[in-house]
Amino acid sequence: MRRVSPAEAIRSKYPEWIVLVVARDAAGKANVMPAGWAMICSGTPLYVAVAIGHGRYTHECIQATGEFVFAWAGEGQQELVDQTGSSSGRDMDKFAQFDIAWSGPEATQVPLLEGAAANLECRAVHEYPCGDHTIFVGEVLAAHMPDTPVRKLDNFSGSYSVALPDRGR
Amino acid sequence: MRRVSPAEAIRSKYPEWIVLVVARDAAGKANVMPAGWAMICSGTPLYVAVAIGHGRYTHECIQATGEFVFAWAGEGQQELVDQTGSSSGRDMDKFAQFDIAWSGPEATQVPLLEGAAANLECRAVHEYPCGDHTIFVGEVLAAHMPDTPVRKLDNFSGSYSVALPDRGR
User: CB neighbours of B72 closer than 8 A, spacing ≥ 6?
Assistant: First the structure.
């Protein structure tokens, strides 16, 4: 074993899943950003957590409205991940700009993403400081999946693909 | 899109990575448990987070000593994941019982796992309540990797494999 820089060790993380975080701002405009830093964090009640950088527009949205949708990106959403990851909702309406397909929520006011592997409607129950990010913990109020199952997309260090088990050995 | 039970939606998460969490108890005995609920959560400073159930032995260990190692399980550690996931350090010394290969740490008192894809030595800087789990946030003090690279193992809903991108289409 050899000591390495933390940056080198962190590259071991791939593939990492991709969570699309949807939230509305105080004026009601909906926004989407992709996040890799997300996890489930309680079983009963069911909670999920996502770490959002302080400067992100989504950070202000969740603080303003206390709600978000946690959606695992689905096969076919590669372009959406790139588009929403390289732009800020502070400057534009991403839903209009990128023609994002959505459906109406049931438990919150936050739109659901068509094409995601699953959508979890969440009420923010904790907001924890964490270095240069904030951990937002959401209680899952309702869950939705596509009529025809969609496979989850993973981040393979810059390219996005469905992950399959290596059974070739 | 159709409304589903949260339990059904959560199954979309696979593959999920497997983090081996190493910590010592107050008496110095080292222990390992596998956790899927883990993420990176700050860039500068570099922090990682892991959600640990209240009843887990590792929960008391981190509370007692304030240190842990966050290691992505490596190819070849399938059996170790099963062994350490189906037993409790409260009842045994897992390092002795399962003959776990380890190396000495540099920044903490917590042993490093031979065979993991990477080992991150962490000092617990936050401990956040989160439903039936606690989120432990660790500052990464030192990082280590095997001399010969080891691929990360992912959890494909019960079976553990290296995850490869589906490029077959």
Answer: A12, A13, B17, B18, B19, B20, B116, B117, B118, B152, B153
**Is A143 close to B8, i.e. CB distance below 8 A?**
yes
- Phi first, then psi: give them for residue B117, nearest 5 degrees: -70, -35
Tokens of A128: 């924890």
The alpha-carbon gap from A58 to the nearest alpha carbon of chain B, in Å, equals: 15
Interface-testing mutation among B3, B11, B37, B41, with chain A (most A C-beta atoms within 10 A): B41
Residue B103 backbone phi and psi in degrees, to 5 = -130, 160
pTM over 0.90: yes
**Amino acid, res. A12:** S
Residue with tokens 């996005």: A160
Q: How many Å apart are CA A1 and CA A114, to the nearest integer?
A: 45
Cα–Cα distance between A137 and A48 in angstroms, integer? 6
Closest CA of chain A from B25, distance in Å = 23
ipTM above 0.90, yes or no: yes
A147 by Cβ neighbours in 10 Å (0-12 / 13-18 / 19+) ranks as exposed
Q: What is the pLDDT of residues B81-125, one digit of tens each?
A: 999 999 999 999 999 999 999 999 999 999 999 999 999 999 999
pLDDT in tens, A105-122: 999 999 999 999 999 999
In sequence order, the 6+-apart residues with CB closer than 8 A to the CB of B142 are: A3, A6, B105, B106, B107, B108, B120, B121
